[in-house]
Write a structure and sequence with these properties.
Layout (H helix, E strand, L loop, with lengths): L4 E2 L2 E2 L1 E3 L2 E3 L10 H4 L11 E6 L34 E8 L12 H9 L19 H9 L8 E4 L8 E3 L2 E2 H5 L3 E3 L2 E2 L6 H9 L4 H14 L3 H4 L1 H8 L4 H26 L6 E2 L2 E2 L8 H17 L5 E5 L8 E2 L4 E4 H5 L5 H27 L1 E2 L2 E2 L4 E6 L15 E4 L10 E10 H11 L22
Parallel strand pairs: 5-14, 5-19, 6-21, 7-14
Antiparallel strand pairs: 1-2, 3-4, 6-20, 8-9, 10-11, 12-13, 15-16, 17-18, 19-20
Amino acid sequence: MTRPEIGRGRLLRGPGTLAAPPVLESLLPRRALLGTAAKAPLPTRLAFLYVPNGVHMPDWTPQAAGTGFEFPELLVPLRPFKSDLLVLSGLTQDKARPNGDGPGDHARAAAAFLTGSQPRKTAGANLKAGVSADQVAAAKVGQTTRFPSLELGCDRGQQAGNCDSGYSCAYSANISWKSESTPMAKEIDPKLVFERLFGGGSTTEAAEARARRDQARKSVLDFIREDAARLRGKLGAADARKLGEYFEGVREIEKRIEKAQASKEKPVRLPRYEKPDGIPREYADHIRLMCDLLVLAFQANLTRVATFMLANEGSNRSYPWIGVGEGHHDISHHGGDKEKHAKLKKINLFHLQQFAYFLGKLKAVKEGGESLLDRSMIVYGSGISDGNRHNHDELPILIAGKGCGTLKPGRHVRYGKNTPLNNLYLSLLDRMDSSTETLGDSVGRLPLLQGEK
């Protein structure tokens, strides 16, 4: 019987369970290992991480361009990753501007971030934005993985109703769009993400498997132990160790999800809803658990494309654990107040610390003699620059990773005024073997990503 495959890695099976191992060199075609293949044998991953309400730009942008830049205050958490990081200045998302549509910058910022298309101003069902960069990639490379793309978040998002000056909540809650009228709703519950990644078979079979695991408190790994043992016997020492480390990571995440679900403490009340079971009470724990799941999904080649909204655009979440009791959106309208500036920077630093955690996890995974971060392109940014001005030029944009050697990080690159952000996406899609001639308001490829001319 032919076993199912994901890309170049076989699936491990159990009752109602599918688990993909990491990409293992022992299972790659010998000609690829000998370097005779036309393309790199290991895949490139692409992810977009979004933060709302802009950042405090005076402490974000490095003074010098090139490799000799110093880290400004907000980027200090990323200092250990300088050689993995591109800081890009001057990029603009014009279609997040009003362009005659009046207020609603937060909704437009999210909807246009990956599409470069002007969202239709409507609070009804007649949504219209554009196909997002991640979904262009998913359409081209998604057939090689179990999941064409993965959409994650930490804030529940409404798909209807008025959330920003006549714009549907769907615009503020989504950055991924499969078509101009179809946003890709994100998953915010780590337990459901885990079940989606590792639950196999039909919906009924997966539900039955979940019930069995919950009742017996068994790991998905218990169900695939026999199949994994057979695979381990065919591997070299390095790959056997890699497989063991990967399974340890899966089990650790399971334990954390179980702990969150079993908590008897009173849930924290948030506006309009309570956190459901399975979501950690602490926001940082929630973000990091989702990051870990994304690393596992990339490591196992379950998907090569993902988006992760750390919060919905316009979020007014407070951050009392870092000394910010006011809402994020309220503080972003700082009006030049120094105290609000200081609190805004605390929130920005918190988000970047979580990003640093994610990069560290990617860098710790070894694949083909490199790190998973080396084989990724991770975009971090916002569709707003200064939350007080609601401007969409000089956006805060970072890229981490080397894209399988197609990017030259360790630099701050300045581009001309009003350079379309979608030019960057065209260039990244080329590196994903997902080339397209135009995307939104793009006018060409973004130069200098591989170094100076």
